[in-house]
Amino acid sequence: MRGLGTRTVLYQQGVASTLGLYNQDYLSVDILREKGPITAGELSKLTGLATGSTTALIDRLEKIGYVRRQNDPHDRRKVIIVPEYEHKAEVSHTYHSLHTAMLELASSYTDEELALITNFLGKANIVLEEQIYHLNAASQSKTSP
Amino acid sequence: MRGLGTRTVLYQQGVASTLGLYNQDYLSVDILREKGPITAGELSKLTGLATGSTTALIDRLEKIGYVRRQNDPHDRRKVIIVPEYEHKAEVSHTYHSLHTAMLELASSYTDEELALITNFLGKANIVLEEQIYHLNAASQSKTSP
User: Fold this and answer.
1) What is the DSSP string of A44-75?
2) Of chain B residues 114-143, which have a CB less than 8 A from chain A?
3) Distance of CA B21 to the CA centre of its chain
4) Angle, to 10 degrees, between the axis of helix B23-35 and the axis of helix B2-18?
5) Burial of B14 (0-12, 13-18, 19+ CB in 10 A)
6) What pLDDT sits at residue A30?
7) Distance from CA of residue B141 to its chain's centroid?
8) Considering only CB atoms, which chain B residues are within 8 Å of A101?
C-alpha cells in the first residue's frame, strides 16, 4: 500500500510536469475535479494552503483555462471555482494510457471481485481523508501554540 | 482510484510537513525505504531528479540523519545511500495512526479477500510504475529534441 502511495505521488508529479503545471496546482485541479465546484475557502481547507496562496493558485489556473470563477447560482454572495480542465485535450491525452492499462487490469477480475476491490478502495479513501484531517490539525496546533 | 491518488498525495505532503521535510525529499526517503540501499544514480532515475539535485538532496537528508552514504560492500567503487529514517521515533509516531486505522480496515476482510485485494494492489503498482516510466520518457524526449 505504501509502495503504491509513493508511485501515485511520482505519477501525479509526472502528469503535472507533462502538463507544465506545479505539483501543488495540479493537485488542486484534481481536488476540484472530485469535489465539484467549491469556494476558494473550501479549496484552501482541502489542500491545507493559506488563503493568499489559494488566491494566487486560482489566478494561475484561471489564466491557463483550467478553472473559472463564477457566482454560486444558489448563493449570489459566494464565488465558486469551477473545474474546466477535463475538457482539455492534453489532459485526457495524458491520462489515456493509464486509463487503458487500468481497464485492462480490471478486466481480469470478475464483477464480484471488482465490487470487493472497489469497496476496499472506497474505505481506504475514507481512512486516508481522516488521517489527512488529523495530520493538518496536529501541525496547525504546533504552529499556533 | 483517482480520488485515492489525490488523497495519498495530500497525506504524504502532510507527513512531510509534520516531519519538517520538503515533499520531494520525503518522497525520496520513501523510495529508499522501498528499494533498499541504492546508488545516487539509481535514486536520480527513480525520482526523475537531475544528478546535481539528487546530490543536494542526499546532503540534506544525511545532515538530519535520515540517510547515510557508505561504500557498497559488493563493489567498493560504488557509494550507496542507506535509509536510516525508519528507526526515528518521529517517523514511526507520524505513521502510527494510519497504520492502526489500516489494520482495523483490513481486519474486516477474510484472508481470501485480503489476498485478492493485495494481489490487485500489487498489479496496480506495476501498472503505475510502467506509466511513470512512459511519462518521464515522453517529457524527456520533449525537452531534448
Assistant:
1) HHHHT--HHHHHHHHHHHHHTTSEEEEEETTE
2) 116-117, 120-121, 123-125, 127-132, 134-136, 138-139
3) 14
4) 100
5) buried
6) 79
7) 25
8) 127, 130-131
Which mean pLDDT values do the consecutive 10-residue runs of chain A (145 residues) have?
Answer: 71 79 79 85 82 90 90 89 80 82 92 93 86 75 53
Question: In Å, how far is A9's CA from the nearest CA of chain B?
Answer: 5
pLDDT tens across B79-134, in order?
999 988 777 777 778 788 888 998 999 999 999 999 999 999 889 888 888 888 78
User: Residue for cell digits 482541502?
Assistant: A46
Is residue B37 over pLDDT 60? yes
Which of residues 10 through 49 in chain B touch A, CB cutoff 8 A? Answer: 10-15, 17-18, 23, 27, 30-31, 33-34, 46-48
Nearest to B52 by CA among B62, B41, B61: B41
Classify the complex by whether its ipTM is higher than 0.85, answering yes or no.
Answer: no
- Phi first, then psi, for residue A144 (nearest 5°) are -120, 90
- Residue B16 to residue A132: CA distance in whole angstroms: 12
Residues 6+ apart with CB under 8 A from A32: A38, A43, A67, A81, A82, A83
Domains of chain A: 2-85 (1.10.10.10)
Which residues are within 8 A (CB) of A93 and not within 5 positions of it... i.e. 6 or more apart?
A: none
pLDDT band at B48 (very low <50, low <70, confident <90, very high): confident
Chain B: closest CA distance from residue A77 (Å): 30
Cβ distance of A6 and B128 shorter than 8 Å: no
pLDDT band at B145 (very low <50, low <70, confident <90, very high): very low
